[in-house]
UniProtKB/TrEMBL annotation:
UniProt entry keywords in alphabetical sequence: Membrane, Transmembrane, Transmembrane helix
Database matches in PANTHER family: MFS TRANSPORTER, TRANSPORTER MFS SUPERFAMILY
Region described as Disordered: spans on this chain: 384-410
Cellular component aspect of the GO annotation: plasma membrane
TM ranges: 43-66, 73-91, 97-119, 131-149, 161-180, 201-220, 232-252, 264-283, 289-310, 322-343, 355-373
Protein name, entry field: MFS transporter
Amino acid sequence: MLKSVAAFGALLLATFLMMVGAGLASALVPLRAAAEGWSSGSIAWIGTVYALAFTAGCILVPILVARVGHIRVFAALQTSLACLLLLLALAPHPLAWMLFRGACGLGMVGGYMVIESWINERTDNTNRGTVFSAYMIVSMVGIASGQFLLPLGDIAGDRLFMASALAFGLALMPVMLSVAPAPRPLEQVRIDPRALFRRSPAAAVGCFVAGVIFGNWGYFGPLYGKAAGLGTAGIATMLTAAMVGGVLFQYPFGRLSDRIDRRYVMGIAGAIGVAVSVAMIIAAPRTPIGVVVGTFGFGTVLFTIYSLSVAHANDQARPGEFVQVSGGLLIVYGVGNMIGPQLGGRLMDRLGPEGFFVAMAMMYAIYGGYALWRSTRKAALPPERRPDFTPVAPMSMRGQAPAEPAAGGR
């Protein structure tokens, strides 16, 4: 296993550095915007434009790669990300940040797609799962590392933006110096969200709701921590606690969904999300330990609902449709991601910090309730006809990997 992972050392190092920059920026941007005195509506629009550019990048980046190749696209996008972070520090104005932070969305999805397609092409069915698992672990460690840089600088200053830009710049080096051959151009597929909804409505609605939830979490999670009285170290710990909860519970949820109807497990995840959100609304914790424990519980399903939805969609997909299905789900997720900051911002404006979890409770209720309702409308496939559950991050284009079961197997 270690030999398989070591062969991708350069790409994993680039991933780690890129995610350090992304993790720091994702926590820093909303906190700095709030420190500037901008309204929740302005902060929400920054998140919405980022999600719009991220979603558009899923379509545009393969075209760019086909024209100039993976390495040049990766270099251009990482350089752009570094410059954009510096521009955020130089131009603290809501409209400027919508433009600059929005462009970051295109750069980030391009980085993911280039690295993941590279890994995908250099692996086969014997080691793909191992290497992608290592990739996800490195990504999460990188994000957490970036978040824990927050206490080392002043939110109102420029150094944290410089640190994020530096991480993106350093991510260039392992890729530019790698001797591995560049992969073939990214596959461009026809994406039809309406056909996806007809084929697997529970998965389509699930990915949309997951997008709303992640959009709210990404921009208003740090602001919830700030409103609850946490300092920068406490906010970084809170964000990481949610991630740790997700990592620990992906496998149990996945194993359970391989044994019973996945929609039942989606319903369970939705119920847990509602229960934790309601508990956070009622308890209204204002101490670091209370907030961290609550967000750990919240994270147990936060990072699972997307994977369950993708797995259910793959259950319904015909052979050869896995890439198309994954691409369609990511577009649906992106649309939800645009709405998430708008919903969270408005509810926090009206209800205070607990409005954040009111939005979450609503979305988890829709997620779990719709999945359970769909389970009464159509019978599930037997376990032997379903591909095994694979943890998937919403940021990932993991669907490029052929995940089709062997004939007669799972």
